[in-house]
Amino acid sequence: MAATHFKLNTGAEIPALGFGTWQSPKGETKKAVAYALSVGYTHIDGAYCYGNENEVGEGLKEAFDSGVKREDIFVTTKLWCTYHSRVEENLDKSLKSLGLDYVDLYLMHWPVAMNPNGNDERFPKLPDGSRDLIRDHSHITTWKSMEKLLATGKVKAIGVANYSLRYLKQLLPEATIVPAVNQIENHPSLPQQEIVDFCHEKGIHVTAYSPLGSTGSPLMKEPAIIKVAEKEGVSPAAVLLSYHIARGNSVLSKSITPERIKANLQIVKLDEDDMKILNDYTAELTKQGKLVRYVYPAFGVDFGFPDKS
Ligand code: NAP
């Protein structure tokens, strides 16, 4: 059987499969979260910047009211870039919206600070249309503030997201607490093996986001994925989700469609032959220079990813 949980460096367990909420629209998010929890998901991934945490909270409440226990659910949320100098304030806002007194995991969403006093609370821009950044605020300073959150009891673990090897190597010598998690885009078209290997070596758990290729799930149409799906007698989504668990990582999938939410619970143990087909697919894309990164917001910052640097 495929792993259902992974151990974090805090000793806590993170469920291997999580439910994503990015781009879940108003009026749909509560239903999706409540439905996901009712059919067996135990791990919910949100973020302040998604703008829908109040509905995530309503979905959680519906589940708790129907008997689901808080301690059986793993909730992640993320510090947004305009709050890098106000870390606890942003956490408190998220907790209030979520209706929780703690989250299981708090991540730094991106290692870049944006102007807290700019022309927009979440996405401040300069007159030329570029993002209004605080370039001299180091992500290491932000991490130091996040470390202090552990003593408040409002977070059970802290981690990072969108950290490249370069950024991890800047952070770790300065960190008192090693991040529990690095949440990164990951799929056979962008396996980021060097980051995964480094994280595993340092005891940092990796969570894969956008496993289906994000909006519109484009990876489900890739012939190599379909080939493994046919071989195993499962859907392409099951292959794309199971791929991460076979690599020792957890994975987040998002849907607002009940049939898909339920179908995405199917995780299978991929064997060596399956992984070879997927790894050969990656190798071919690498050779052709055709790895694909679907999520790369226009910060105008070099985050150190080799495909974007
Ligand atoms: P994803 O889960 O790879 O794909 C979501 C898309 O696939 C949606 O369009 C969804 O459609 C569709 N879909 C889902 N299941 C399907 C199925 N069985 N068959 C066909 N289509 C299906 O993308 P994602 O939302 O980018 O990533 C997952 C989660 O990771 C996010 O929601 C978020 O929580 C997290 N994330 C984190 C970061 C970060 O910076 N840390 C960045 C991106 C994502 P419908 O919803 O219309 O059904």
UniProtKB/TrEMBL annotation:
The active site is at residue 50. Residues 17-279 form the NADP-dependent oxidoreductase domain. SUPFAM superfamilies: NAD(P)-linked oxidoreductase. InterPro entries: AKR, NAD(P)_OxRdtase_dom_sf, NADP_OxRdtase_dom. It comes from the Eukaryota. The record marks 78 as: Lowers pKa of active site Tyr. The keyword Oxidoreductase applies. Pfam families: Aldo_ket_red. GO terms for molecular function: oxidoreductase activity. Keywords: Oxidoreductase. Belongs to the aldo/keto reductase family. This is D-galacturonic acid reductase. It comes from Hyaloscypha variabilis (strain UAMH 11265 / GT02V1 / F) (Meliniomyces variabilis). The lineage of its organism: Eukaryota, Fungi, Dikarya, Ascomycota, Pezizomycotina.
